[in-house]
Write a structure and sequence with these properties.
- Residues about 10-20, about 25-35, about 80-85 and about 325-339 have low confidence and may be disordered.
- The relative contact order is 0.10.
- The chain is about 65% helix and about 5% strand.
- It is globular, with a radius of gyration of 34 Å.
- It contains 11 helices and 2 strands.
- It has 2 domains: about 70-120; about 120-325, Proton glutamate symport protein.
- One of its GO terms (cellular component) is plasma membrane.
- It holds the Pfam family SDF.
- One of its GO terms (molecular function) is symporter activity.
- It comes from Phytophthora rubi.
């Protein structure tokens, strides 16, 4: 008879752990070590959260704050406090707000002191130097744009005009833009400044300024490429000439759609970064951009407002606007208004 070969049963691929028990101490017996097997579950390493998950996690807190605020507002509206009680509550409330305003600078400086204590002195020196150079570069770029490009633009289209005299008449609007950081909030002041010059008719500057407050974002177009290049250099991302061109085009086109409200330039910076470097995540250097945005965004607003006034003056000259013949009421007869 032929020999019959039997195959051993296939064991499932499971991970086991052997645990040896201590030997028996009884006399006259052989010492054995019993082995106990335990099945270990197949555990996969947890993947780090994606950027989208981080954003969603932060969004939960924002949504929760909005919901709580709405509920509190409805409760206060339903209570309908009398005027005397509301006035009595308002005085301590104002004192509380003033106390918070006094504490905010202390909180800012305390965070700076803690960060300086934790960070290494050499790293802190390099960090402050990099951020200072970024701010200086943005300020120089915006200054050249206002003090060189705009005067050349005015002298190119208006030969007998003094560009610096026109810019000096817009100082009040520029200061308001620096304080408010909003082109939309500065619009009434800009209209008053241009109306006081008697060089542009009200109907023309109302139309040009209303259009320019939404699309005349020269400050964002100048500052965004500098911010993107700064983040790339700090993060070690290489930039070739094609990337520089793409950054410039994306910033120029994207600035047209930036809203005339504070801190919208941060959205444009993120958009340009993901457009030019789609495979690169938003670097940690973006935190430096956020930290300096309170100053840079105000300077952007000043440039945006100045751009609106210069364009308004040039358009008035090109269409032959009879601004010098304005009547005392500030309005022209309809037959004299150029289309």
């Amino acid at each position: 008879m032929g020999s019959i070969t039997t195959r051993p049963p296939v064991q499932p691929s499971l991970s086991y752990e052997s645990i040896a028990t201590p030997p028996s101490s009884e006399a006259g017996r052989d010492t054995f070590s019993s082995v106990e097997t335990r099945r270990q579950p197949d555990e996969e390493p947890a993947s780090p959260p994606s950027q989208l998950e981080k954003w969603l996690c932060g969004l939960r807190g924002v949504v929760l704050g909005v919901v709580v605020g709405i509920v509190l507002g409805l409760v206060l509206n339903a209570v309908n406090l009398p005027g005397a009680a509301a006035t009595w509550i308002g005085t301590p409330g104002r004192l509380f707000i003033r106390a918070l305003e006094c504490l905010v600078p202390l909180l800012v400086f305390s965070g700076l002191v803690v960060s300086m204590t934790i960070a290494d002195s050499e790293d802190l020196r390099v960090l402050l130097r990099s951020v200072a150079m970024y701010c200086l570069c943005v300020i120089c770029g915006l200054g050249v744009h206002v003090l060189v490009f705009y005067p050349l633009l005015l002298r190119t289209f208006i030969r007998n005009a003094n560009p610096f005299d026109w810019l000096a008449k817009m100082v009040r609007a520029q200061l308001f833009a620096l304080a408010s950081a909003s082109s939309a909030a500065t619009l009434p002041v800009v209209m008053e400044c241009i109306g006081d010059t008697k060089l542009v008719s009200p109907r023309l500057y109302r139309f040009v300024l209303s259009l320019g407050v939404t699309i005349g974002m020269d400050g964002a177009a100048v500052g965004t490429p500098i911010a993107v290049v700064f983040m790339a250099q700090v993060s070690g991302v290489s930039i070739d000439p094609a990337d520089y061109l793409a950054i410039w085009l994306a910033s120029a086109v994207g600035s047209i759609g930036v809203g005339p409200v504070p801190s919208t330039g941060l959205v444009l910076i993120m958009t340009v970064w993901k457009t030019v470097f789609p495979s690169e995540a938003l670097p940690a250097a973006f935190a430096f951009i956020i930290a300096t945005d309170w100053l840079i965004d105000r300077l952007h607003t000043v440039v945006n407002v100045t751009c609106d006034t210069v364009v308004c003056r040039v358009v008035a000259h090109l269409v032959g606007d009879p601004g010098e013949k304005l009547q005392e009421e500030g309005e022209l007869p309809r037959a004299q208004i150029p289309l």
